[in-house]
Write a structure and sequence with these properties.
By secondary structure, chain A is α/β, with parallel strands linked by helices. Helix content of chain A is about 30%, strand content about 25%. Chain A has 4 helices and 9 strands. Chain A has helices spanning about 10-25, 60-70, 85-95, 115-125, and strands at about 25, 40, 45, 50-60, 75, 80, 105-110, 130-135, 140. Chain A has a 5-stranded mixed sheet with strand order 6-5-4-7-8, covered by helices on one side. In chain A, strands 2-9 form a two-stranded parallel sheet. The longest helix of chain B has 27 residues, at about 140-165. In chain B, the strands form 2 sheets. Chain B has a 5-stranded mixed sheet with strand order 5-4-3-8-9, covered by helices on one side. In chain B, helix 3 (about 85-100) packs across helix 4 and helix 4 packs across helix 5. The chains are: A alpha/beta (about 140), B alpha/beta (about 200). Chains A and B meet through helix 1, strand 1, strand 3, strand 7 and helix 4 of A and helix 1, strand 1, strand 2 and helix 4 of B.
């Protein structure tokens, strides 16, 4: 039986690899809060992924609830934080960006979050001149 | 002695496939494909004393207040009326306010302004929609209100674009978009939240 010619197999796999490298993004953090984002109609895509900083707001995940309770928490990077720590986080993120004026902050918050938390974050964002925000949401018809 | 043609031994590439497979699997695991969408908003600049003075100068007819209480009910006040409003009626109300089609004296005042491509138009360029929330307002309600207000602007821009250029706003050229944006500038202000009515 003649052997199949597999010399083009690496090229094939490399093509798939490059495809995935381009269309996907590195998974940012392990989530410690649980959230269902609201649904909206007038959405825009987050364009430059490298210029986006994420802030997660919601109650702790089921595994962490026993330890941290079920009240709303703010997550920055891999840990829980207070609203006052947001400013440092924003500055830190900004340092690592090539185009610092393009910084966008994506707020991924749970639908049922009370506005107080969001407002606190917004106030800090204003003070740290991170004025472009994006309220993360899913599409609804 | 005749030269023998030397053969270059081929590199054994049979493991390249395995290597690239490993890389592929690594990227599959560490990356995510979800495209992030969201409502893009611009926050006002940090407050300064001068700005507070300016805010006081806004005429009452130019302001539409949208208050969301801790239960998630909307209360809207503009020149025509002040009442509780269902979220489904907010878009129409906002459009009516921004447009002031019949040039009513209770809705935002109009100024003639020269815009490239559109000529001199009477605009309600001084209008402001102010969204006020309570600390206990559910985030979802706030989001939906923002969504409806942005939708009102987008619908107005689409209508204007169709009327003047025969295409929807998204299909316009950059200059045309600027003209339409100048005609309907997005002015949603977010005041610092107040505590009123309940906790």
């Amino acid at each position: 039986m003649p052997e199949m010619n597999t010399s083009s197999l690496p090229d094939l796999i490399f093509t798939i690899l490059f495809f995935f490298m381009i269309v996907t993004t590195m998974r940012e953090v392990t989530l410690k809060v649980k959230f269902v984002v609201p649904a909206g109609t007038e959405l825009e895509k987050l364009e430059k992924k490298s210029a986006v900083s994420f802030i997660y707001v919601g109650p702790p995940t089921d595994q962490l609830r026993a330890q941290f309770g079920s009240s709303t928490r703010i997550q920055l990077n891999d840990r829980y934080a207070e609203p006052s720590e947001v400013m440092d986080f924003i500055y830190q993120e900004r340092q690592s960006m090539s185009d610092q004026t393009a910084q966008v902050v994506s707020i991924k918050a749970d639908q049922r979050t009370q506005m107080g938390y969001i407002t606190d974050i917004k106030e800090v964002l204003r003070k740290s001149w991170a004025l472009k925000v994006n309220y993360s949401s899913t599409r609804r018809n | 002695m005749a030269k023998k043609k030397r053969k270059v031994p081929g590199l054994n590439a049979s493991s390249t496939a395995d290597i690239s497979f490993i890389l592929l699997i690594f990227f599959l695991i560490t990356t995510s494909m979800d495209t992030d969408m969201g409502l893009a908003r611009r926050l006002p600049q940090p407050p300064e004393d001068e700005e507070i003075k300016q805010e006081l100068k806004i005429k009452e007819r130019n302001v539409m207040e949208v208050r969301i209480n801790s239960e998630g009910y909307l209360w809207v006040k503009d020149g025509t009326a002040s009442s509780y409003v269902d979220i489904r009626d907010l878009r129409a109300r906002a459009k009516q306010f921004i447009q002031n089609e019949n040039n009513l004296s209770v809705l935002p005042e109009k100024h003639p302004i020269n815009i490239d491509l559109l000529g001199v138009c009477a605009l309600t360029d001084k209008h402001v929609i102010s969204v006020q929330t309570d600390r206990a307002t559910p985030y979802n309600t706030y989001f939906q209100v923002q969504n409806e207000l942005v939708a009102a602007y987008n619908e107005l821009r689409d209508e204007l674009a169709k009327q003047k250029f025969g295409r929807v706003y998204a299909a316009l050229s950059d200059e045309q978009k600027v003209a339409v944006r100048t005609y309907y500038p997005q002015k949603i202000s977010e005041a610092e939240p107040k505590v009123y009515g309940g906790n």
